[in-house]
Amino acid sequence: MAAIRRSLARFAVGAILIIGFSAGWFLSARAGESTAVATANIIAPIAISNKADLAFALIVPHAGSRGTMMVSPDGNIGCGPNLSCTGTAEPSGFFITGEPLKTFTITLPSGSQTITASANSMIVDNFTSNLATPGVLSSDGKATIFVGATLHVGANQPLDTYRGTFMISVEYE
Amino acid sequence: MSGRWNHKMLRRSARRVIGLSFLCVVAVAAQEAAAKPIKVRQVQDLGFGTLASSLAQGGTVVINATTGAKSVIGGVTDLGGTHGRAEFVVTGNKNAAFTITLPGSITITAGTGPGTATIDSFTSDPASSTVFGGNGKATVFVGATLHLGANQLPENYTGSFDLIADYQ
User: Nearest-CA distance from A168 to chain B in Å?
Assistant: First the structure.
C-alpha cells in the first residue's frame, strides 16, 4: 500500500507540475503591453515688475474749479485749463520677462482707482499703455511698457500728497 | 496475492493519473488556442503641448481621453503646441472581453535640466474594460493629468507609460 501511495503521489506531482507549467505559460503569454511617450514643453513663466511709479507731480488747482490732468504712456502731460501743473510728472514703467519672442497681453485697471491723503481722495482713471496688442518679448525675453492715466482734481481739493496703487497683470497670449 | 493486487491497482491508478494529466494538458492547450495572446501597439503618443506656469501658482493640464482636448486649471497658461491623447491598437480574440491597465502615476523629466513633473489620473476610452470587435481589434485612447509647480523650470519634459491589456 505504501508503494501505491508513493507512486500515486509521484504521478499527482507530475500532473500538477504539467498543469501548473502549462497554465503559467498560458497566463504569461496572453496579456499584451505597449509603451507610449508623454511629453510637455514648458516655457519660462512671464513676470512683470514695477520700475517707475506713475507721478502727477505738483498740481495747483485754481480756486473753486475742478480739473483733470493726463499723463500719457509716452510721457506727455495734459494739464487741464483750471490747473497749474509743475514738477516732474511721468508715466509708470514696467519690466516684463519671459520666453523670448513670445506674445503677451497686459490687463490694466478697467475702472477708476482712488488715491488718498488722510480723509481726502481723488480719482485716477483711463489707464492706458504704449503696448501694441499683443506685445512681443524680445529675443532675450524682455519688454518694457509704460502706463499713463488721468487724474481728476475736485473743486477746492485739499492740498496734500495723495497716494494710491494700481495693479496690472501680464499673461502669454 | 496482496502483491498482485498492488501491481494491478498501481497500473490502473497510473493510467487514470496519466489520463487526467493528458486531459488537463489538452484542456489548457485548447484554451490557449481559443485565447490567442493579446498584442498592444502604440499608434500615438500623449502630448501636453506648450505650457507655462505662473511664478506664484502651479496648476494642472488635462488631456481628455474621449475628445483629446486640452484644458488647464490654476496658474498654468496654455500656449498651444502639439497636444493629443495617446492611441493604442489592441488585437486579440474577436468579441472577447479584455481589461485595460494604466499606471497610477509617472514622472516626466527634462533631458538637460533638473526639472521633473508628475502625470497621473490616467484615463482611457473605452474605460477599464471593453470587448474586441468582430475583427479582433480595439482602439484605446488614453488621457491623463499633468501637474506643474509654480515657476516650473522651462524645459522639454518626456517620460513613458505602459498600457497592459489582458483577457477578462
Answer: 15
